[in-house]
Amino acid sequence: MPRSNPIRRGLSTMSSSGLKKIVNIAICGFGRAGRLHFHNIRKNHRCLLKYVLDCETKPVHHTLNEYNLPKVEIVCDREYDRILQDKDLDAVLVTTPTNTHEDYIQQAIRANKAIFCEKPVASSVAGIAQCYSEADKAGKPLFCAFNRRFDPSLLGLHRQVQEGKIGKIHEIRTTSRDGELAPMSYFKQAPVIYLDSAVHDFDWICWLAREEPVGVFAHGVAHNKVIADRNDSDTAVIVLSFPSGIIGTVSVGRYSTYGYDQRTEVHGDKGMLVYENAREAVQFASSQGYLSGTPHPSFPERYAEAYAGELDHFVDLVLDPSVPMRVTRESTLLASRVAAACEQSVREGRMVPLAAAPESAV
Length: 362
Description:
Helices cover 37% and strands 22% of the residues. The chain is an alpha/beta fold. Strands 12-11-7-10-9-8-15 form a 7-stranded mixed sheet. The chain has a 6-stranded parallel sheet with strand order 3-2-1-4-5-6, sandwiched between helices. A two-stranded antiparallel sheet has the order 13-14. Helix 5 (98-110) packs parallel to helix 6 and helix 10 crosses helix 14. The longest helix has 20 residues, at 329-348. The protein is globular and about 55 Å long.
């Protein structure tokens, strides 16, 4: 007879030491990111999904029926306060539109819940700092999902840089282009490209450099009229100037014809490390030569391992408060401060100094 899953049998979620071993989670927002995290929660033996909150409940019903999860409760967004009153609920996972993140986080903090939030934590640097301050007071983890820090390939590159393989860093270049353009409805509520897309590159470059940039220059254009009409860009280049002399360069785009494009190049006085764009492993060979595999279509496929890894880290944080946070408040604030500097640079047409962190972040 096959062994049944103890989570599904409803057995104790406490270990012999009295510490919880299962984290009860509510997903807030069931769009593309929410569904991605749903599958990782479903596969993680240390997680139990209790609630899915979304204003559109029909797609949620369909997914839960598909995976035979009748015990997961579906709630609309106006019932958020009710599920926060559930004393068995340990954590909320926030994947709602960016302009709602801060409110969802603050309510969860007041209810004494741990929070996993897709970037950015809030729409402003001050709002992000306030969220972290309140989470610290409550003694609950607030985790911002900068997923590249959990990607095995990029972790390997980072390790080699920190071990000094290329010596003193001179330059860091990243390329980040989405594959298919997101639906136009997405851009009606999404942040501008610097906070929505390039913020991942800012976190990645600053983590590699191990210092804050002192100057930021950004230039962007919009080839798509809908994006142009909201004063945003679909193609941009950003230059970061660091006090040690490192130059960081980000090329970011909302779409490309050939698929999801993610590359990194780190050049130093002893050599260079390059991460080329990930492709399907299979190659086709014929009399015409070799045909390489195609790039991944989008972020769920490219960063599948990273998304699973960041969830596992979050579970560690919830179950054991002594575990060090791998994405700190300082790093989250830094990436958003760079994004804010990009917007200022675009408005003023010049390189601008990086603004100091808010006092509440210190």
